[in-house]
Structures are given as structure tokens and as C-alpha cells.
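[worker-b] picked up task from shared queue
[worker-b] task type: protein-ligand structure
[worker-b] ligand name resolved to magnesium ion; SMILES cross-checked against name lookup, match
[worker-b] sequence length check passed
[worker-b] input payload:
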Amino acid sequence: MASIFTAEETLDPAYLPPRLVGREKEFRQVLDRYRSAASKGLPHHLLLTGGIGSGKTAFGRRLAQELARPDGPRGRPVVSHYINCWRRSTDRLVLLELLRSVGVYLPDKGYGVPEMIDILEQGLRKAPAPRLVILDEVGTLVRQETKIVYLLTRSGEVGLGSISLLLIAPEDVLAFLDAASRSSFGVSRHLALPRYAKEDLRGILAYRAGLALRSGSYPDELLDQISALAAPTGDARFALELLQGAARAAEEGSAPEISPEHVRAMQGTLRPSLSEEKLEGLDDTQLLVLLALSRTLRGPRTRTPTGTVRLAYSAVAEEYGREPVSRVTFWRTVRGLEQEGIVQVDPARPGRPGRLGMDELPVAVLRRRLEDRFPSRPSRKT
Ligand SMILES: Nc1ncnc2c1ncn2[C@@H]1O[C@H](COP(=O)(O)OP(=O)(O)OP(=O)(O)O)[C@@H](O)[C@H]1O
Ligand SMILES: [Mg+2]
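[worker-b] inference finished, payload out:
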């Protein structure tokens, strides 16, 4: 059996993709600004913000990679230092890390901040170059009384040479900086990455699946299914986790391709939302509509035309001795289930009827749970 993966490591969180799909314009703009500053020997500072999984870290690391290449015959390569401040939320720890990046390894204790800055200055003098310091997850650091951001924004004046800064945080943290540092991050120096919409996530998934998976091992619909699941948060990391998990499940089950059931199983594991208690809270019509939907979602399909589900619902209602509800009530029931986050509704488009899906857990599992529940469950008025 051919493997699902061709390069699984490219779905690893540590892997940095050569392209950031849909962020090309922002990336080019930021790269140009840093390059043009470096060519003049001037520093440039930027604050980059965005939600969880919006690609901030990847953006910063790609920037470092691009800046390391000389830009044309007169361009100067920029030496970057990437520091994640989440666990280094004091000036001392950030300085220790910066020192390491110039090859100076100091013990954690025994040196004061001013002394460390002197040693850093000597280290930087030995290898003069335009530099970029990336402080990722800088939120906690700037909420302390940090001096390091101030020092780095004044690098030229304090003898540290030309150091540019890229601060990365989920939200605007400039208010926490002292006025002098803040003034070096003017209005144009804040880039807020917009949240990924469903179509953006689909583009990212298509690109990353192309790198990691054998072509033909994932039906096209699967990318729609995953991007719909990740769209409410716009989190690309979660979308990739779903893809990788589903692919691994298919591989372990020796399946020829990834199926929507693999994705549902991952969603049910990573973000369980359709609990027994939630099912317990649904009325009979809702349960029967869900049962009908789960019976129509077989095989590689992630969605069923709404009309087909309604027909199946009528059959299921009859099977369990219930009077089928009207078309209007059926539709209201579907909307209710959508609001509960249990079913996905794709509205009708010209040439394509409306469709329903259920991506919260494997359809086979849901069907079994619902069939176990009926008909022993006492009938309840809707
Ligand atoms: N535009 C994109 N193209 C390709 N891959 C992307 C893109 N955006 C994000 N990714 C991938 O999605 C994952 C999450 O991105 P990243 O870690 O950069 O997000 P983040 O904004 O730093 O998240 P957090 O707020 O949790 O730190 C990474 O694996 C990254 O490679
Ligand atoms: Mg990050």
C-alpha cells in the first residue's frame, strides 16, 4: 500500500514553510522596509500582532531567513537573533540569550544587567553587521518594567551598533513601553495580521498538503471540511493539526486515502464538543434529524444535499413511529443544530443545492449512539 505521507516532517510545528500563502503582500512590504533601512545603515522597528495561529512566528522566522541573503550586489545581509520571550520574561534572561547568539556563554547568575550589556557591546563590536532582534511572545516582558526594549531601540546611541527590532505579540503592546521607545514605533510601525478566513485556511491547507502528502491521498472536499472546522478561530495551527492527525490515522489504518471520518475523529479528540450531555439535551426531532444526517453521510462525502437529509428524516421518523415534522420545522431544527455547533450548513448556491454536514465526531460513532438511544428513550414533545 502506498504511504499517505511523502514528507510528514513538513507538517511538524517546527517546520518553516518556504512560502506563507496569502501573506505575500505584507511580507514583501515588511522585507523591503527592513532591507532599505539596512542598506542605509539605519535600524527599523516593527510590532507584529495577530490572533492565535495567524502565522506571526512563521512570518518573523521567514523574515530572518530572507534578510540573511544579500539583496543584490550592494545589499547587506542582516544577522538575525530570534528569541521567544514566553519563558524569558526578564531583561536578564533575554540578555543571556542575546549573548549566546554572539557566542558568549555566561552563567545564569553572577552578572548584573549593566555588566552584561558591556559584554554584549564587546561581542557585537567583534562582528559588526546590521542586526535584527526578534522578540516573539513579548507580552509578558513588556508588562514588566523592561529596559531591554528601550536599550535596543536606542542601540546606535548606546554603542550597540545598528540593531533593528521586531516585536511579536497577540495584541498591541506599545502602550506598555516607555514614551521614548514607543516613539520609535510610529503609527506605520505596527502591522496587524488579519485573521485567516475559511478560504485563506483552505489555501494554506492545500499548499501544506501538497508538500507533505501523496497526491490523490486526500479528496478535495477534505480541505473544505478542515478549513470549515478551523474557520471559527482562524487558527492555521489547528487546521494543520487536524490534517496531520487525520493523515496519520489513515496511514495507521492502512487506508488508501484520508476520509472525512478520519477528520471527524481528530476533531472529536482535539476539540470534543458533542458530548453525551449535549446529546442528552436535544429533543426527539433534533435527534432524529441527526440520525438521518448520519445515515446519509457515508463514504467519502462530507456533505449531503439538504433535500436528501429531509427524505431520510421522514423515513427515520416512520421507522421509530413518529409523525414527521413540517418542512419549516425541519429547517428550524437544522438551524438550531447549527447554532449548537453540531451540524454545518452550506447555503445553496446557483447550480448547487444547500448541503448539511456533521464534523464533530465520526459519523459511525454518532449513528451508534443515536440508535442505542432510540426507541427506548421516552418520547418528548418538541
Ligand atoms: N500563510 C501560511 N502559509 C503556510 N503555513 C502557515 C501560514 N500561516 C501559518 N502557517 C503555519 O501554521 C502554523 C501556525 O503558525 P504560527 O506558529 O506562525 O502562528 P502564530 O501566530 O505564531 O501563533 P501563536 O499566536 O500561537 O504563537 C505553523 O505551522 C505555520 O507554519
Ligand atoms: Mg507564535
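[worker-b] attaching auto-annotations
[worker-b] The first strand starts at residue 45 and ends at 49.
[worker-b] releasing lock
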